[in-house]
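Protein modeling request. Please complete all fields; requests missing the sequence field cannot be processed.
Requester role: graduate student
Desired output: 3D structure, token encoding
Chains: 1
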Amino acid sequence: MNISVVFDFLKKLAANNNREWFNEHRDEYERARAEFEKLVAAIIERISVFDESIRGVQVKDCTYRIYRDTRFSPDKTPYKTHMGAYINAKGKKSDHCGYYVHIQPAGCLLAGGSYCPSPKLLKALRQAVYDNIEEFVSIVEDPEFKKYFPRIGYNFVKTAPKGFPKDFEYIEYLKCKEYCCDYAVADNFFTSPDMLNRVEDAFRQLKRFSDFTNYTIDEFEED
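Delivered output (223 residues):
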């Protein structure tokens, strides 16, 4: 695979984000998309070694369209300037934690978790963390995990969520509005010879967090 092709196209697209340019360079887009899909297929194969639930997941079920939905956005540029794939046994629209790969010049990352859960699911996740805090802390504060995923959550409430004690030692973990984490990487991460090994190492750590979170999500969906 040649991931440099992906970066080259995305840089050009960012500078020429209009339909006329895109249509004139559609062949370049198709080449970049093909290389990205090769990468996703290789990552699926690596994840399947340690997460059996991913076996059989197809690339087409993980990737996203390049076209932006501009209906409710003040930004009317028609195309995304990144390529992403969410490798998830339950589907890319699921609340379940999966493995996200994001390629964007100067904005690459690996990530995962449950993003924008419903209020009821978020409450269940907070309760699971509260009830099993020793197990949770043993995962998210393990140096091997934090090496890749230094923080949990992107958005937070300002005070203790309703129903939880304000003096709880790990209250910050209950303030999360979503249970996600990410590993920001330089562009050359995806072009390095040992890239797949490094992706596998990071996602092996992520699986520990995902297993904890998905256990609660499974219970929530069964109720």
